Amino acid sequence: MASAFAHALIGLTAKRLALPKASFKVTMIAMFCAAIPDADVLAFKFGIPYEHMFGHRGFTHSVFFGILFGLLLALIFHWKNKDKLKYALLYIFCTTSHGIVDAFTNGGRGIALLAPFTDERFFAPWRVIQVSPISIRRFFTEWGWVVIQSEMMYIGIPCLLLLGLGFIIHKK
Ligand SMILES: [Zn+2]
User: Which residues surround ligand 1, an ion (CB under 5 A)?
Assistant: First the structure.
């Protein structure tokens, strides 16, 4: 994984750019969508191995899951809204972004982006983001500091630039 903070920042940025006027609730849901695929670390507790389709970086990191989860949340929270399709697209983007960003990390196993159709694991050609430890305890070590620097460089700064740009554009 990249850290939950980095994923959530991507959700925040996407929401600010796509639906700047939508409520704070939408921001929270977008951030939640971007971070939720890592809930699959629970699989370890149930003895499901990493490389299993339902193991870590498995099904919940796939494009298919992103579409399902995004649609589901849009239906739950915006059922009566005429713009529900827009919300669905935002939530799908945020959820799907997670697995794709993880594919750029330099550790762990690959990402099952095409699950459930194949359990093949994928990485991006450039694995530039320092992988984040799975355990929170280990995040507060030197490793965590290396992760923060790497995520600032490849996720934090680009997101902040986009947020700034969005702010300028939407202000006009
Ligand atoms: Zn992940």
Answer: 1, 38, 102
